[in-house]
C-alpha cells in the first residue's frame, strides 16, 4: 500500500495577507505545493489529500485536477469549525480554525494508510520526501512515528523572525521534547530567540520541526481524544488552538512509544512574509536551472 501526502492548506495566512497556498512561483506557474507533490510522487507516494476550507475548493480543483488526475489520487477534506465538535456550541467570536491537530483529524475520513503531514507553504526538498517514504515503509507503526528534522540554520527568513519547534533528541535519534521558540533570527554570527527582554543563543545545527510528520492512522485516535479534551477546556476561548506538536508530545509520554527525528539534508524555504516571495521564486528558478526540477513539472 502506497503512503499518502496530507497537505494542510486551510490556514488564514494572517501575516502574509493573501491566499499564499496557491500563489504561483515556478517557471510554468507551479505553486509550492506542486513541488511537494512532485517530490512525493517521485518518491513513491500514491495519494494527496488537501485539507482546505470549503470556499477554496473550486480554486484548488481548477489548479490541481487537470495536471494530477492521471498521476496521483486526489482527495479534498474541509476543515470546518463544526467538524468533530458535536455537543459543543461554537462561540460567535470564533472565526479561525481550531489548529493543526484538528486539521489532521479532519483527514481521518479519507486516510487509511501510513501518511505524512506537511504545510502548504513550505518547500521541503526532495531528500525529505525520500527519507519520509523510507521511514513509513520500513519503520513506522502505531508505536513509532516520525518527524523530518531540519537544521535550524537552513530554516530562517531574511525578512523577519520565525517560530520554530527546537527538538531535543536522545542518543538513538528519538524525540525527547520540542521547545516552541518564537522570534528566532540571526544576530550577527549567532542565532537567537527572544525570551522577554533576553536574547538566548540556539546552536545553529539544532534540529527543528517544520511540521513534516510521519504517522500511521492510529494518530487519529489520539487527535480525537485530545480535541475533545481541548474543547471542554477551551470552547470559550476564540483564539485557542491545538497543534500537531501537542499530539506528538502526548504520544511520547508513553515510554513504549517513540517519535524518530529523521534528519534531512534538504534546504527549507517558505513564505512566512510577503517579502519572502521573491526569494522563493529565485530559489526555485535556481533549482530548475541546476536541473533538479524540469521547467514544467507536469
What does this protein look like?
The structure is a single chain. The protein has one domain (4-149, 209-289): Spore Coat Polysaccharide Biosynthesis Protein SpsA, Chain A, CATH 3.90.550.10. The protein has helices at residues 32-43, 57-68, 100-106, 126-138, 219-234, 244-251, 277-289; strands at residues 4-8, 47-52, 73-78, 115-119, 122-123, 144-151, 162-169, 175-187, 190-195, 198-201, 207-215, 258-263, 269-270. The longest helix has 16 residues, at 219-234. Helix 3 (100-106) crosses helix 6. The chain is built from 7 helices and 13 strands. By secondary structure, the protein is of the alpha/beta class. The strands form 2 sheets. Strands 1, 2, 3, 4, 6, 7, 8, 9, 10, 11 and 12 form an 11-stranded mixed β-sheet that branches. A two-stranded antiparallel sheet has the order 5-13.
Instruction: Give the H and E element order.
Output: EHEHEHEEHEEEEEEHHEEH
Percentage of residues assigned to helices: 25-40%
Distance between the termini: 24 Å
Count of individual beta strands: 13
CATH hierarchy: architecture:
Alpha-Beta Complex
SS strand fraction: 25-35%
Shape: globular
Structural domains: how many: 1
Broad CATH class? Alpha Beta
- Briefly note the CATH topology name: Spore Coat Polysaccharide Biosynthesis Protein SpsA, Chain A
Structural class: alpha/beta
Structural Rg: 19 Å
For the biggest sheet, the summary is: 11 strands, mixed
Continuous helix count: 7
Mean pLDDT comes to: 92
Low-pLDDT ranges:
12-18
Amino acid at each position: 500500500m502506497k503512503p499518502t501526502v496530507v497537505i494542510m492548506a486551510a490556514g488564514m495566512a494572517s501575516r502574509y495577507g493573501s491566499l499564499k497556498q496557491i500563489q504561483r512561483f515556478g517557471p510554468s506557474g507551479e505553486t509550492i505545493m506542486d513541488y511537494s507533490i512532485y517530490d512525493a510522487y517521485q518518491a513513491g507516494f500514491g495519494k494527496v489529500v488537501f485539507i482546505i476550507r470549503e470556499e477554496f475548493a473550486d480554486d484548488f480543483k481548477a489548479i490541481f485536477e487537470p495536471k494530477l488526475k492521471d498521476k496521483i489520487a486526489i482527495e479534498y477534506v474541509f476543515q470546518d469549525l463544526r467538524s468533530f465538535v458535536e455537543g459543543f456550541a461554537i462561540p460567535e467570536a470564533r472565526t479561525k480554525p481550531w489548529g493543526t491537530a484538528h486539521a489532521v483529524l479532519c483527514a481521518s475520513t479519507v486516510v487509511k494508510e501510513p501518511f505524512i503531514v506537511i504545510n502548504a507553504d513550505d518547500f521541503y526538498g526532495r531528500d525529505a520526501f525520500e527519507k519520509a517514504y523510507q521511514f513509513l515503509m520500513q519503520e513506522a507503526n502505531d508505536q513509532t512515528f516520525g518527524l523530518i528534522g531540519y537544521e535550524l540554520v537552513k530554516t530562517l527568513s531574511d525578512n523577519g523572525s520565525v517560530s520554530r519547534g527546537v527538538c531535543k533528541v536522545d542518543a538513538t535519534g528519538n524525540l525527547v521534547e520540542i521547545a516552541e521558540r518564537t522570534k528566532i533570527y540571526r544576530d550577527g554570527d549567532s542565532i537567537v530567540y527572544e525570551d522577554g527582554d533576553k536574547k538566548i543563543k540556539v546552536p545553529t545545527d539544532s534540529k527543528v520541526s517544520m511540521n513534516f510528520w510521519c504517522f500511521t492512522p492510529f494518530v487519529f485516535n489520539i487527535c480525537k481524544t485530545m480535541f475533545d479534551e481541548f474543547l471542554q477546556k477551551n470552547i470559550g476561548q476564540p483564539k485557542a488552538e491545538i497543534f500537531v506538536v501537542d499530539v506528538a508530545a502526548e504520544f511520547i509520554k508513553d515510554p513504549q512509544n517513540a517519535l524518530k527525528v529523521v534528519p534531512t539534508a534538504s534546504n527549507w524555504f517558505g513564505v512566512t512574509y510577503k517579502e519572502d516571495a521573491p526569494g522563493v521564486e529565485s530559489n526555485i528558478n535556481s533549482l530548475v536551472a541546476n536541473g533538479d526540477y524540469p521547467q514544467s513539472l507536469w
